[in-house]
Amino acid sequence: MDKYTAVIIGGGPSGYSCAVRISQMGGKVALVEKDFVGGICVNWGCTPSKSMIESAKVARMIREAAKYGIDVPSFEVNFKQVAERRDEVILSARATISDLLTHYQVDIFQGEAEILTPTKIKVHGGKLDNDGFSMHYDGNDVELETENIVLATGSAPLIPVFVQPNDPSVVAAIG
User: Fold this and answer.
1) At 121, which helix (H) or strand (E)?
2) 126: pLDDT confidence band, cut at 50, 70 and 90?
3) 165 has a pLDDT exceeding 50
């Protein structure tokens, strides 16, 4: 069993930044992510949202092109292509982060981490399906020995007491 300077649990911005920095300082690092590297922002939040917002900006610019003396008699938004572009942007961002981690010799373990002791982690192994968007656990568990454990598992939003999570007008991932 390899011994790591640090095992980082969570592959979002805090986790992968921490892993890279420890590696830059000479440490041997493992990163455990239960879903996809990049965290919420890259995979479900900022990156996909901004990709789709950019498509909407282009559509708006075309719609308003006449203001600039450009005649565009008609156009249509192909939502399937907008979604395909969004997915390509997500996959590209994930690949960039994976390449960064590989460059800094960070071992990436896909799966769910369980802290067994202050120096031992069990990774309940996971596996990506071919589309790069689906995850299933294959049951191949791995134990990692480490000097340090870093929890970078994200956070939850603060929900004001007057907000009812089950209200259909509330759009949030609570839980």
Assistant:
1) strand 120-128
2) low
3) yes
CB 46 within 8 A of CB 53: no
pTM to 2 decimals? 0.79
Instruction: Parse the chain into domains and list their residue ranges.
Output: 3-40+90-151
pLDDT score for 174: 46
Average pLDDT over residues 87-109: 94
Residue 123 φ/ψ, nearest 5 degrees: -105, 115
For the domain bounded by 3-40+90-151, which CATH number is listed? 3.50.50.60
Is the Cβ–Cβ distance between 25 and 148 less than 8 Å?
A: no
In 10-119, where do the E strands start and end?
Answer: 29-33, 107-117
- Report d(CA 82, CA 85) in Å as an integer: 5
CA 22 to chain centre: 20
